[in-house]
Design brief:
single chain; alpha/beta; Rossmann fold; two-stranded parallel ribbon; 26% helix
């Protein structure tokens, strides 16, 4: 099995921001552990000249998800704060796209929500490889929306971590993604399948 990586495939790195890493305002357990693995994927996609997209929460101070506004979460990833920055060890190639989401008061776990990204991406992309934080929220919703928009989607299971508000949330999220048509893959499997580059 050979999975071609090229102009029609994109890597989507979801919300690897300081507030979601240990020490942040809304830490995902071992959230920083995805950075090294994601950097491996980023290097591979960059070498293939395939599109790489980084998403980020970019909340106003009065975002609807914050507890002070009646939401479930503590304030996090507020625009232009330290916690909203990407993890400093995450490799961000100069040609990568950065997409901000939930930058108004409205919630948006998926980077498709409230944007015209699906339409824009469909013109040039067929397959998305998705990893990042958190498995049971923004990764899940991004994958599910991508599937609804008829993209082929691979979940990078070795490059995701979950919040686990309830134990087992991440496993349930993965089961749902797979049930909806997502395929699971790891870096090791990619190496084993000898991914080819297409230009």
């Amino acid at each position: 099995m050979t999975i071609p990586i090229g102009k029609k495939t994109a890597l989507v790195v979801v919300d690897v921001q300081l507030d979601f890493c240990p020490g942040g305002a809304l830490p995902v357990p071992e959230g920083d552990k995805v950075v090294g693995t994601l950097n491996g994927y980023i290097k591979h996609f960059a070498a293939a000249q395939a599109p790489i997209i980084f998403t980020r929460d970019w909340h106003p101070p009065n975002h609807s998800s914050f507890k002070s506004q009646g939401g479930p979460w503590p304030p996090h990833c507020i625009q232009n704060t330290e916690g909203a920055k990407f993890h400093p060890e995450l490799t961000i190639p100069p040609e990568a796209e950065i997409v901000s989401k939930a930058d108004s008061r409205d919630e948006a776990y998926s980077f498709f929500q409230g944007t015209d990204l699906a339409k824009k991406l469909r013109r040039r992309i067929q397959t998305l490889f998705v990893g990042g934080l958190a498995t049971d929220y923004c990764v899940k919703e991004t994958v599910l929306d991508a599937l609804k928009e008829k993209f082929e989607v691979y979940l990078l299971t070795d490059a995701c971590r979950g919040v686990e508000v309830k134990p087992g949330d991440s496993a349930k999220a993965i089961q749902l993604m797979v049930a909806k048509g997502c395929k699971m893959i790891t870096r090791e499997q990619i190496q084993n399948t000898e991914i080819t580059t297409t230009h």
